[in-house]
Amino acid sequence: MSTDSFGQYICNTDDTIELMYQGIELDSINIEKEIVQKYNQTLDELKVSDKLSFVKDYSSINEFDQSNQQNWYIPDQYKNIDIDQHINSLVVDDKEKDRVKFELELYKKFNLYPVLRYLIYLVNLMRENNIVWGVGRGSSVSSYVLFLIGVHKVNSIEFDLDINEFLR
Predict the structure, then answer these.
(1) How many CA atoms lie within 13 A of 35 on its CB side?
(2) Full-model pTM
(3) Which of 5, 52, 68, 164 is 20 to 30 A from 142, alpha carbon to alpha carbon?
(4) pLDDT value of position 58
């Protein structure tokens, strides 16, 4: 397997065949252009319309980042999770409710709900697989929402940490 200039893995023929044998959907996998072209040519000959697309050539790091920010590879149940409902279901008292309301407004303002959805998925995945992660570090511990999700173990309300430290 090789990587492109942005560090993304690109599957060669052997990698692609192995993924196919494993029954893994190839739609979200980066595959060498020549392999995709041959695969699609064969599908044309068989009159099958389920073609693959090949690795996108990005002209800049900004284009690469923009593309990846729009494609979160998580299960559908997490893609459609209602963040407001999920987070508010974890709140116990009025002080927490006020803090969560304020933070969620900031997360909305900065269009960070996709990040929250991914973090909920990631924390659940780590819990299901008994993966240990740190108690928290840096400015992320100032977010009470991240504390509720389980990203870190520092209660920012208890320690009177300002959310603005995180969202600078």
Answers:
(1) 16
(2) 0.64
(3) 68
(4) 66
